[in-house]
Amino acid sequence: MNTWASAVVLVGVLVFAAVRPYRLPEAVAAVPGAGAVLALGLVSWHAVGQELVVLSPTVGFLAAVLVVAHLADDAGVFRYAGSVAARWSGGSPRRLLTVVFMIASVVTATLSLDATVVLLTPVVLETATAVRARPKPHLYACSHLANSASLLLPVSNLTNLLAFRASGLTFTRFAGVMALPWLAVVGTEYLIFRRFFANDLASAGHDRETVPSLPAPRFAVGVLAGMLIGFAFAERIGLHPAWVAASGAVVLAAGPLRRQPGAELGRLLRAANLPFCAFVFGLGTVVLAVRSGGIGTFVGHLVPANGDLLGLLSVAVLAAVLANVLNNLPATLMLVPLVAHSPALVLAVLVGANVGPNLTYVGSLATLLWRQILHARDLAPSTREFLRLGVLSVAPGLLVGVAMLWLGLQVSGVR
Amino acid sequence: MKVLVWIAERTWESCVDAARFVPGGQVVLLHVIDPDSMEAVSGARAGLLGRAMPAIDASVEEVLTAGQIRLFDAAEDRLGRPATRLGQRGRVERVVVAAAATADVLVMARDGDHTRLGPRSLGHASRFVLDHAPCQVLLVWPEQPPDLGTLPPPPGPHGPHSKV
After folding, report:
1. Euclidean distance between CA atoms A356 and B24, whole angstroms
2. What distance in Å separates the CA atoms of residue B86 and residue B84, rounded to the nearest whole number?
3. Residue B164 — very low, low, confident or very high, per pLDDT cuts 50/70/90?
4. Looking at chain A, which residue has its C-alpha nearest residue B74?
5. Do A361 and B47 meet the contact criterion of CB atoms below 8 Å apart?
6. For residues B147 and B128, what is the distance between their CA atoms, to the nearest angstrom?
7. In chain A, which stretches have pLDDT less than 50?
8. In terms of C-beta density within 10 A (0-12 exposed, 13-18 middle, 19 or more buried), how is residue A95 classed?
9. What's the CA gap between B16 and B80, in Å, rounded?
């Protein structure tokens, strides 16, 4: 009974998040959902208190990095990346794809997938149109890499942040182990894209518009680089990455805040997206209730005991399946505590949760179905093409990612 | 005579050049925006749940439309005479076939991967339009046509069709 009650609440919260009636924020369902599982006694106040303490730095980091990405955009970092991509491409769509892969992978790894989806993608579209390349392969590349290139750093994806603490690894060790899977998954994805879009990438014509080269936003890029170095060093003095990101935000915001204090503060608050932070807390509580009930026990049985190659692969596949059925955020919240006994398995969860969502390109089955219903009246996008690319890239991505993770674990001695 | 010229990024120049050699008549330039490009952007945003503001979806359409207009301008410049512009969106191959229903000639490019000449060197959309276009079709190479050196060697005495 308790098992089903918490599952029903979770499904309700996720369906609301997919449909978003009247564009209401997801927290409108998630926070009352959390209240419901507490009121029904499906989870104890004490356990929820602990969960919120664990989640707080992660949510704080999310808010800070959203603000940093917004400020970097204002400083022209993404526009500059676009002009560099146009120049390096030399008008060739294939070379443009290569540069887009490099830029999107670096932006995703350092500024998290949100920055790639929200801020980089529009710039890539502008660039592709300007060099008269067909935009489709480059836009698909951004949306795929936002997921699959988010393996590298604990800060690249919300899922990584959630797993980072449980892994017990240091920032640099995490990056060291994940470097190989990250490179291998991006490389696999690149080869598949080159084949899949061979037609659209063929470069026949010579025409292109002149793209003005922009001056490099040195200050902002310097602050971002400093932030990255800060992430690695801060934990040695016991500082959570959230504080480093917050400091980066303060340094970048100082100029704009001095010019227009009132307006800029409002924009920064909007960028920090507090309703979404509330959603993560609400979702964390509901998933905790599901995890402590019968479903958690069942999934716990599916989880292998140790992190050998087969164990890594089965956990990654399980995470990928859950990520597509639910969404990778609840999937990670669900699985990470169940595999916390082995850092290797925690990292395997991330390979599944980060590479997996490319199968249903919108992040989950519920969202995909809802979009189909929405599009039924106008021009339905050819979901078949998206799904074909998803199947073609996710299966090899998972295999290569897990194999390289295994290799990385052997080399670094993490078990 | 109505000449429909299907222009697409990378291949439009050769199509416009070919249309210049079709005497007289009315030239219609057709460009199709693929809605999948917009879906790739908004789908990725949907995956972020509430972290993505919805406002930018509209600007994707604006950028694509602005690109289409610039392409029309460039094509008309190259053509050297005024032409009717037909800017559409939808499943590319189907939109082109539908537009060709009222044309006498459709000018289109051999759009595909020309690194290896064979069945695959004609892309999916081109193949579909070539099969179903309800008018005469003028198929042009977007680059220099290949020379005879690209011919595969003739089947030898031990080739697949030789009798033993």
Report:
1. 56
2. 7
3. very low
4. A207
5. yes
6. 26
7. none
8. middle
9. 10
Distance (Å, rounded) from C-alpha A244 to C-alpha B164?
A: 77
CB of A112 within 8 A of CB of A69?
Answer: yes
Beta strands B136-140 and B105-109 are parallel
- What are the chain B neighbours of A202 within 8 Å (beta carbons)? 10, 111-115
Confidence of residue B52 (pLDDT cuts 50, 70, 90): low
B161: pLDDT confidence band, cut at 50, 70 and 90?
low
Q: DSSP for A92-109?
A: -HHHHHHHHHHHHHHHHH
Interface test with B, best of A139, A161, A375, A387 (most B CBs within 10 A): A139
Q: What is the DSSP string of B98-133?
A: HHGGG-SEEEEE--S-TTS-SGGGS-HHHHHHHHH-
Query: Residue B10: which of A114, A204, A209 has the nearest Cβ?
Result: A204
Contact between chains at A275 and B111 (C-beta distance less than 8 A): no
Range with the poorest average pLDDT among A102-106, B83-87, B120-124? B120-124
- Put simply, the answer to whether B35 touches A381 (Cβ < 8 Å) is yes
Name the residue in chain B with its Cα closest to that of A272.
Answer: B51
Whether B116 has a pLDDT exceeding 70, the answer reads yes
Q: Give residue B54's pLDDT band: very low, low, confident or very high (50, 70, 90).
A: very low
Tell me the whole-structure pTM to 2 decimals: 0.90
Closest CA in chain B for residue A146: B44
Burial string for B52-88 (b: 16+ CB within 10 Å, else e) reads: beeebbeebeebbeebbeebbebbbebbeeebebbee
- ipTM of the complex in this document: 0.87
Alpha-carbon distance of A333 to A151, in angstroms, equals 17
How far is residue A83's CA from residue A103's CA, in Å, rounded to a whole number? 12
Q: What's the pLDDT at B73?
A: 94
For residues B89-114, give the mean pLDDT.
Answer: 92
Model confidence at B58, pLDDT cuts 50, 70, 90, reads: low
Q: Residue A252 is which amino acid?
A: L
pLDDT of residue A16: 87
Residue B155 carries which DSSP code? P
pLDDT score for A202: 83
Chain A interface mutation, best of B9, B63, B78, B113, highest count of A Cβ atoms under 10 Å: B9
Let me know: does A115 contact A142? Beta carbons within 8 Å.
Answer: no
Residues 180-209 of A with CB under 8 A from B: 198-199, 202-207, 209
pLDDT above 80: residue B14? yes
Distance CA A135, CA A111 (A): 23
Alpha-carbon A158 to chain mean position: 6
